[in-house]
Amino acid sequence: MDQIIVSLLNGIIYGLLLFMVSAGLTLIFGMMGVLNFAHASFYMLGAYFAYTLQGTIGFWAAIVLAPVLVGGIGVVVERFFLRKVHHHGHAHELLLTFGLSFIIAESIKLFFGNYPVDYRVPNALDFSAFTIGGMQYPMYRLLMGGVAIAMFIVIYLLLTRTRVGIVVRSAIYKPHMAEALGHNVPMVFMGVFGVGAALAGLAGAVAGAFYTTNPNMALELGVMVFVVVVVGGLGSLGGAMLSSIIIGIITSLAVGVDASVADLFAYFGAGEWARSIGGLMTLKLSSMSATIPFALMLLILLVRPSGLMGEKA
Amino acid sequence: MQKSTYKNIVIAPALALFAGIAVAAPVKIGVLESLSGPQASTGLLYRTATKYGVDKINAAGGWNGEPVQFVEYDNQGGPAGASDKLKAAIADGVQIIVQGASSAVAGQITEDIRKHNLRNPGKEIIFINVGAEAMELIGEKCNFHHFRFGSNAQVRTKALVNAMKQANAIGSKVYSINQNYSWGQDMEQAISDNASSGGYKVVVKTLHDVNKIQDFAPYVTKINAANADTVLTGNWSNDLLLMMKATKAAGLKVRFGTTYLDQPGNLGNAGDVAVGHYVVQTFNPEAAGADGERFIADYKARTGHEPVFIEPQTAFGMAMVADALRRTKPEAGALNVNAFAKALESAKVKTPMGEITVRASDHQALQPMAVSVVTKDAKYKVDNTDMGFKPVKRFTAEEAATPVQSSCNMKRPA
Prior knowledge:
The complex is a heterodimer. Chain A is mainly α. Helices cover 72% and strands 3% of the residues of chain A. Chain A has 13 helices and two strands. In chain A, β1 and β2 form a beta hairpin. The longest helix of chain A is centred in the first third of the chain and has 31 residues, at 2-32. By secondary structure, chain B is α/β, with parallel strands linked by helices. Chain B folds into two domains: 13-151 and 287-366, 3-Layer(aba) Sandwich (Rossmann fold); 153-281 and 368-400, Response regulator (Rossmann fold, 3-Layer(aba) Sandwich), CATH 3.40.50.2300. Chain B is 43% helix and 18% strand. Chain B contains 14 helices and 15 strands. Chain B has helices spanning 2-23, 40-59, 79-91, 103-119, 153-166, 182-193, 195-198, 217-226, 237-249, 266-270, 285-303, 311-326, 337-345, 397-400, and strands at 28-33, 69-74, 96-99, 126-129, 146-148, 173-179, 201-208, 230-233, 255-258, 278-281, 348-351, 354-358, 365-366, 369-375, 388-395. Chain B has a seven-stranded mixed beta sheet with strand order 7-6-8-9-10-14-15, sandwiched between helices. In chain B, α10 (266-270) links the parallel β9 and β10 (278-281). The longest helix of chain B has 22 residues, at 2-23. Chain B is globular, with a radius of gyration of 23 Å. Chains A and B meet through α1, β2, α9 and α10 of A and α2, β7, α8, α9 and α10 of B. Chain A: Its main location: membrane. Chain A: Pfam families: BPD_transp_2. Chain A: The chain crosses the membrane at residues 12-37, 57-82, 94-112, 139-159, 187-211, 217-238, 245-268, 280-303. Chain A: This is Branched-chain amino acid ABC transporter permease. Chain A: GO terms for molecular function: transmembrane transporter activity.
């Protein structure tokens, strides 16, 4: 029982981390229609900036400043690169951000080397929150989850309850009308992109210390972020939250299941036969827990192509 | 008439030029590694160490009175790239191919070379594998033109288990966790095979996806539920780091026995989490003594850094190549690869760790191994931390060796 509770908690927190990274991606796509391939690279930049800054200004200040810097880079990318190719359509934007992701990864290697850097959870936060079933639960995990939830609430309120939200939404649905009313639409787009990048940067700054900060971290998380956004529905913040948590919990629980298809057959007395076939039949569920999200994505694309909470295309 | 004269003028010197090259062909050693992309960090180390080996050969006079040429090819991290670049290397006249960073890539290269050599008798290529450790490379795929100067899962696990048992650090319950591909599966097999000699029981065996998992907390929950004393793992890079950090965060008192903990960056990122964990190595500076110090100083002078991770074994492998080259006489001014391979089978090199030889039946190098533990009182610190690898036990090449696999059926040239 304890083990299931811990697994659920692990899954939820990991899901919340996925949400932190994918929130910016879904925001940028939902608002601007730009599918940003370099999004996970902003996550990586956030981790490296925080690592560099923490030595001089301390951990907390670094966590605040790193996303601001990443947001600044996002603004530059939008203003000087994306805007130039915007009227050529999606393919150009996609290729541009794709190229950007390589450039960021190689630049990181140039400055910080090929190996993981020693960005770690500060000692003051490195303690356990509670003990359950003989295992301590790290405080820092709860903190990561808390940051993600706070992030969700702030973005949601900002978009639905404030004047800024109204301007942003109107700039998306009726750009010409918004412009006629005196709002600077290109500026709004630039801001949205910057904020989206900053959100990824924040996730990187927070999670980089707990996991590892290395030049491949964007690659490792990059694909998963797209899975989250597709399953949740492109552009839906609530959808991203829902799918993140579902994916987190499923992968966490799957690790604990050492059963295979052959075991299922064994219930019907055909276990020996199934085992003799081998291959897929005897593959343990736990050995493919990281693959399950992709299977889920395929399923969603088949049954509900717009995603769990996406608008009907 | 005029045309043919013109042709003669051009062709005759060109032919003479080619003939000249054929007579005085220098030996080319080509590194076929991941020099870009996510695995470049390891590929670049292999390149540096191979270059060091070639420089040593040239410092000793090269081969056939000419310096040996060092060329590099970027396999872009995968078997497909390696296959392409191998063709380029063969076209460039490379006769000795060096690679080590991936068993998948090595599997491709050794098969390609086998086929090339079948189709082009007299123009054989040789593969010097300095680190790809999958068992099949000296098992089902074993090949006369493939030599391995790395170790393998059976060798590493045998030494690791033996040393940890003597240090009273293995306990009775072992959790086996590995990456789900050839190397990890070999490790899982080796961990089970050594259970009786190590006096432990493998409580759970887990295979997981390679480099795809960010969050190892669910696995830690499983290790806790299994009540394991020790985790034995062949994991490398991020998968190893993340798992160690997650175990520490959960406050588990479990010891790790690893194969690649000495990869650069690991101790730096893990911090105190790593203290007390074990690693099996092909070279340990503290265990190698005064000879080791000389080797380290020389390596640093030539490459700018101390040899780490897989660099020593690569340098030792290249020393074996140098030894064999020295004993291979040129035939018509060129290197006969088959004669060179035969010389390599009888090569014998004294390294700071001890003597290395090659087993002729499967071309696996027999080399000494060391098992070390991470402590703060190690002589050589790594990653700018206050920690290092303190040797616990050394094994001579004979002690470390494991039997030839029955699946190896090597076809030798007549």
